Amino acid sequence: MLSLQQKMSLQQKLSPQQIQYQKLLQLNTLALEQRIKTELELNPILEETLEDEMELEQLEEEPEKENDSDEEEEEQFDNSEDEFDLEDFMNDSEYEQEFERLNKNNDEEKVYPVAMQRKSMRDNLIDQLHMLDLTEEEMILGENIIGALDKDGYFKEDLEKFVNDLKLFEGIEVSMEDAEKVLKKIQTLEPVGIAARNLQECLLIQIRNSSYDPYYSYIAEKILSEHFDDFINKRFDNIQKNLNLSTETLKSALALIQKLNPKPGEGNIDSEQINQITPDFIIEKVDDNYIVTLNDRAVPSVTISKTYLEMLENNKRKRKIPKREKEAHKFLREKFESAKWFIASLQQRRQTLMKIMQAILEKQYEFFENGPKYLKPMIYKDIADEIGMDISTISRVVNGKYVQSPQGIHELKYFFSEGLSTDDGNEISNKHIKELIKEICENEPKDKPYSDDKIASILQEKGIHIARRTVAKYREQLKIPVARLRKKII
After folding, report:
1. What is the DSSP code (8-state) at residue 299?
2. Mean per-residue pLDDT for 456-470?
3. Are 145 and 128 in contact (CB under 8 A)?
4. What is the chain's Cα-based Rg?
5. Helix 452-461 vs helix 468-477: angle between axes, to the nearest 10 degrees?
6. How far apart, in Å, are the Cα atoms of 212 and each of 206, 215, 221?
7. What is the rounded CA–CA span in Å between residue 456 and residue 454?
8. CA–CA separation, 438 vs 480, rounded Å?
9. What is the pLDDT of residue 1?
10. What's this model's pTM, rounded to 2 decimal places?
11. DSSP code, position 429
């Protein structure tokens, strides 16, 4: 039989305000700026405080009101009283000062740097293409080829299939012979070697269009065209033997090849400006102390609109409110509460970020003082226990945020790592181990690079017990090639 039962239980649920705070917490500085601008558009109660304009108006009005300074102070006092006249607003002491100004000091200057507009490499290639003597069909083909380049500037498409698709879908007919000519012309545009179909072709194009010494350019071209497999696998003995070269000649030819760019479009093919990171924190050393500041000068400072507060107060004093005004009053009350919680969440976000960054600074003081080798093992729980917050809060703050310090710009995640115990009983960070591996590879004999086993043995001599496969994993993360590919001719 069916039956109805009542049951009491306790459940943890996040309030809308808590959800909003958590979402704001995980935003970096640039994303927060956009989020505040969106909220300013959606909520009429909120407005941006324009400090520069307020100061300018005060400076202009001062000469005219020198004799009425006392009256002016009284008026300003009265206005400030009016602004905070709402009863429930006054009673909430936690937010009294947040409505006046958020995240700003009176002496801070508001700066909005304007970056110079730049064209992407793809746009520059198309501009160069239009300067060539090509038919209309060839020009369209060239634009499509440039549009199909990958992030490194390579043309990985099958040219014949590419031409057939262009004919089928766009009705543009170009012969394979003419298509090859168009591709060859694009490959000589700046940067030379762009639109190559593979690494070998890319390097050969650069050699053939270079102004290096003709003899060594000829040797380099022979190496790339006839002994490319030996070259990429660093079998220099085979190259020297097959081409009957002296050691000095081989070294000069290889040095020339190393000057070439294997990825002509890397990182620039679509970017319209230089990729840059905006740090969320700035750590500066003043005398013997480190000062942490939140890099939020570009973030709009928001407050409650005085006009709408007065409207709410006037409606509150009325005994009878028409139905239409009731709806408007209800709307304003809802937006007022939303604005109040939004500003409170911003302030709480700021306090949380500063607490976490201060704790990281204290835990990793030796790193900021002496460099990466002094980075200590640390996990999210260490910081969570230090400041009395949940691990999930630490994770939200750390993810995607950066700090600028005398040691450079680092993602906050950089400061968290697992550790290994050494023979002397100390804990050492895996990032410190990576730095040691990098240092060992930089100082190894260039003609006989160390194998992963040898590197593991060197670390064990330092009291760090680490397996060969772990060395290989860290080496790959550092993008250091295997010993065979690190070999150089002395």
Report:
1. S
2. 87
3. no
4. 33
5. 110
6. 10, 9, 12
7. 5
8. 8
9. 58
10. 0.56
11. E
202 Cβ contact list (under 8 Å, min separation 6): 154, 193, 196, 260, 262, 264
Tokens 């000519």 label which residue?
A: 181
Helix (H/G/I), strand (E/B), else coil: 47: strand
| Residue found by looking up tokens 């505040």 in the block | 36
Alpha-helical regions (H) of 26-135: 29-42, 51-61, 69-83, 87-91, 121-129
Give the CA-trace dihedral at 263, 267, 273, 276, to 10 degrees.
-130
Res. 113: pLDDT tops 90: no
Task: Assign 157 to helix, strand or coil.
Answer: coil
Q: What is the number of other CB atoms lying within 10 angstroms of the CB of residue 207? A: 24
DSSP code per residue over 265-298: TTTTSS-SS------SEEEEEETTEEEEEE--TT
DSSP string for 183-206: HHHHHTSSSTTTT-SSHHHHHHHH
* Alpha carbon distance 300, 429 (integer Å): 39
Helix count and strand count (H, E) for the chain: 23, 8
What are φ and ψ of residue 106, in 5° steps? -65, -30
**Diameter over CA atoms, the chain:** 105
Whole-number Å distance between alpha carbons of 381 and 460: 29
Task: Classify residue 163 as exposed, middle or buried by CB count within 10 Å of its CB (0-12, 13-18, 19+).
Answer: buried
Contacts from 312-319 at CB under 8 Å and sequence distance 24+? 312/86, 312/336, 313/82, 313/85, 313/86, 316/86
Q: How many CB atoms lie within 10 A of CB 76?
A: 10
69 pLDDT above the threshold of 80: no
Q: Judge contact between 272 and 116, C-beta under 8 A.
A: no
Let me know: does 342 contact 18? Beta carbons within 8 Å. no
Sign of the dihedral through C-alpha 220, 222, 224, 227: negative
* 224, two tokens: 């790339």
CA 12 from centroid of its chain's CA atoms: 35
For 430-454, the DSSP string reads HHHHHHHHHHHHHHS-SSSPPPHHH
Specify the DSSP class assigned to residue 372. G
pLDDT (tens digit per residue) in 248-272: 999 899 889 988 988 888 766 665 4
Confidence (pLDDT) at 270 = 61
Tokens describing residue 486: 């690190």
**Per residue in 128-175, pLDDT tens?**
988 988 888 889 888 898 888 888 889 988 888 888 888 888 888 888
Place of tokens 């004093």: 317
